[in-house]
C-alpha cells in the first residue's frame, strides 16, 4: 500500500472521466447564455415572435438590431466614451498601484507603516455615497470624465496583491542594482516590472473590466447624457425603455421597414458590452495563476 498522500496518487479512469464531465457541464453552463444572447440579437422579428422571447434555435437571421443600434449615434458615442475611460483609467490606476505597491514593499521607505495602515483601513471603512458626491462636487468634477476615474483610481485589494508579489522579489537583486548606481525608479522600471509581467497583466485586467462595466459613478456624477458610458446606456434602455434612435425609428416606420423587436436590441447592446472583455481575457488568462495565486499565497 502506498504511503503517498491522496492528492499525489495517480488519478483513476473513473476520476478522470468524472472531472471531464463536470468541466464540460461547467463550460456549457457558461457558453449557453452567451449563445442565446448572441442568437437573439441576430434573429429577425418573426423568429423572436415565434420563440416567444429568447431564441434558442437558429431561425431567420438579421442584422436589423445592430443596424438600428448604431444608426442613431448614441451607442457609438457611448462606446467611445467607455473605451476612453477604460484606457485612461486603467493606465492611471495601474501606474498609481505600481508606484504605491513598490514603495510599500520596501520596509524602510518613508512613512511605510502609516501609509500601509491607511490603505488597509479602506477594507473596513468605505466612504458613503453622499460624502463621495460632495468631494467630487467640491473638486469641480461633476460632468467630467475624471469623475469616472479618480474616485476609484486605486483599489486596496489590487494594491495588496501587487505589494505581496513585489516583496517576493529577492532583495539581493535589488541591492546589486543599487550598488551599481541605479535609483528606485530605474530599479522599478528595469528590474521589478519585467519580473512582474504576470501580476501586472492581471491587475490591469481587473482595472480594465471594472472601468468598462462601471455605471454607478456615471449615474451620480454625469448629468450630460452625451457623456454617458455604454453600461449606463444599457441600463437606461433595458430598465427604463429609453429610445436610443427615435428619429430613425420614425423614419423607418414611415418607409415601411420591418423594425427589429426591442428584445433583439437589448441583446445586441449586451453583446456590444461583452465583446471587448471576451477579446482581451484570453490573452491575459494565462497569467492568472502566476500573477495572483503565487503573489497572494507567498505574501
What is the element layout, followed by pairings?
Layout lengths: L12 H29 L3 H7 L12 H8 L2 H32 L6 H10 L7 H10 L17 H12 L3 H9 L4 H9 L4 H17 L2 H6 L8 H11 L5 H10 L6 H24 L2 H11 L1
Strand content: under 5%
The radius of gyration is: 25 Å
Number of domains: 1
Topology, number of strands: 0
CATH homology-level superfamily: MetI-like
Cα-to-Cα separation, first versus last residue: 37 Å
Shape: flat
Oligomer: single chain
Which fold name fills CATH's third level, the topology?
MetI-like fold
Tally of DSSP helical segments: 15
Nearest-integer average pLDDT: 83
Kindly name the structural category. mainly alpha
CATH class category label: Mainly Alpha
Uncertain ranges:
248-257
| N to C succession of SSEs | HHHHHHHHHHHHHHH
Please give the CATH architecture: Orthogonal Bundle
Helix content: 55-70%
- Characterize the largest beta sheet: strand count, sense, and whether it forms a barrel: none
Task: Explain what you see.
- With 299 residues, the protein is an all-alpha fold.
- The chain has one domain: MetI-like (MetI-like fold, Orthogonal Bundle), CATH 1.10.3720.10.
- It has 15 helices and no strands.
- Helix 3 (64-71) packs across helix 14, helix 4 (74-105) packs antiparallel against helix 10 (197-213) and helix 8 (171-179) packs across helix 9 (184-192).
- The longest helix has 32 residues, at 74-105.
- It is flat.
Key phrases:
mainly alpha; flat; MetI-like fold; about 300 residues
